[in-house]
Amino acid sequence: MSAVSHQEYDYDIVKICVVLSIILGLVGTFFGTFIASQLAWPALNFDNPYLSFGRFRPMHTNTVIFAFGGFMLYATAFYIVQRTCHVRIWSSKLAWAAIWLWLIGLVCALLTFPLGITQGKEYHEAEWWIDIILAVSWVLYSLNFIMTIKNRRTSHIYVALWFFLGMMFMVSYIFVFNGMALPVDMTFSYSAYAGVHDAMVQWWWGHNAVGFFLTAGFLGVMYYFVPKHVGRPIYSYRLSVVHFWSIMYLYVWVGAHHLQYTAIPDWTQSLGAGMSIALIFPSWGGMLNGMMTMSGSWHKLRTDPVMRFMIVALAFYGMSTFEGPLMAIKSVNALSHYTDWTVGHVHSGALGWNAMIAIAALYHMITYIWRPMYSVKLINVHFWIHTVGAVLYITAMWASGVLQGLMWRAFDDYGNLVYTFADSVAAMHPFYAMRTIGGALVTIGFGIMLYNLVKTLQAAKAEEGQQTAVASA
Ligand code: HEM
Ligand code: HEM
């Protein structure tokens, strides 16, 4: 069947998500820098419960993951599914409903967190009624995606779409499973699970928010935008299919690596560790597939900052998926758990891999749905400032994490602890200050991106005005 013309695609739903993702990326990294400053300078808690670190932390994590990352995933899914299936989105109305519900759900979450209204489950903090709004949005988004694929005018389903489908399916059911609760009122609910079961279900969700939301979805983004941007086919289609199925199979088992040395059965902890170690193979296969797709186009790196974002994102994907299996080994986890090493690992994935591949995809889409970016120089400045910021953040946390772990387990000849906990807190100060500087750089980078977007939109509007004037003359 013949392809539809680009005018027939619904890009309005993509445009709104692109704009929201960039604005919320700026807000979320600003929150991150704020809580990083609070850890470095506790006076910034202002003795005010509404501004305290404990209440602001989920504001940061939810904004960066579900608002910045979420709207990027909405934008890219709507964009990719139309372009690879050569068909308009199944229902624009449903897409708008999904977008509005996602935004309303997130705004409600961000309004309730400072009041201390949460379920107390990490990455699932929002209360039960907000969960319902978000889940309905997610189901509408997934249904629209599936129906668009069903109506496709192409014979096969491109691998990027498989990754999105995997994410949609897994996130839907694990989110709902973990969110099961008995509501008391709008501000409080009891989890359906108790004790170790609650912990296991929570981390089954927790690591699959990482494995499917932050990994499978973002890999779908990588599999579409890397080949498209460099103008080469994916290095190995076969490898991408192996990558897909092994990621789908392995990720669901690894949640227990968050619960090493706790009250959950020992065999469960070992299973989580074993599956985590196995995960390095598909992860690196995918990383190499992305990198090899770029080979032959390396010369473009000199002039194309978007491609630089892509290659560094893949390098960080490789690094964080090497580090994760390492940290899952029980003896390594004995040192790393509860320390900033975990936070360093998180942000090498989040700032290095997730944010950089997202930023690359957003810049790429802006060019196609509006016009080329207002300033390529500013994209380049953004690239450097983000990279330096991320490296500062991650190295600070690695150093402080290992130092913390070693200080906590240092004993003298008589078996007494060498350092008090307060000594370790004091030793962290320079690293926390360094992280704040790194975070501020990343936040400024998002500010530059937003400025570049606004200027691009103004230029697009001016061009549209000129065309209308010429047409009516
Ligand atoms: C092969 C892949 C990976 C494995 C096996 C893995 C493994 C681990 C391990 C062992 C921990 C520490 C758990 C603890 O001691 O509490 C951890 C924490 C974490 N990882 Fe990974 N990781 C992987 C990739 C990634 C990637 C790509 C990201 C992307 C952002 C990521 C995000 C996180 C987060 C958010 C946490 C912290 C969870 C928390 O305590 O709140 N991981 N990971
Ligand atoms: C300006 C950039 C950023 C700064 C300064 C920043 C700062 C922070 C800080 C201070 C924490 C709390 C750490 C703790 O409790 O000890 C945190 C946690 C976290 N951040 Fe960020 N962050 C930034 C960007 C991001 C991005 C872009 C993402 C995701 C895409 C992200 C995901 C997370 C996650 C998942 C956690 C929880 C980690 C854990 O429980 O181990 N952050 N961040």
Question: Can you characterise this structure?
Answer:
It is a single chain. The chain is mainly α and 473 residues long. The chain has a domain at 6-327: Cytochrome C Oxidase, Chain A (Up-down Bundle). Helices cover 74% and strands 2% of the residues. The protein is built from 14 helices and two strands, in the order H-H-H-H-H-E-E-H-H-H-H-H-H-H-H-H. The chain has helices at residues 12-40, 53-85, 92-112, 128-150, 159-179, 195-230, 237-251, 266-278, 280-294, 305-328, 330-336, 340-369, 376-408, 421-472; strands spanning 181-185, 188-191. The chain has a two-stranded antiparallel sheet with strand order 1-2. Strand 1 (181-185) and strand 2 (188-191) form a beta hairpin. Helix 1 runs antiparallel to helix 2 (53-85). The longest helix is centred in the C-terminal third of the chain and has 52 residues, at 421-472. The radius of gyration is 23 Å and the shape is globular. The mean pLDDT is 96. The chain binds protoporphyrin IX containing FE (HEM) (2 copies). One protoporphyrin IX containing FE binds at residues 122, 210, 214-215, 254, 257-258, 276, 279-280, 283, 320-321, 324-325, 327-328, 333, 336-337, 342, 345-346, 349-350, 353-354.
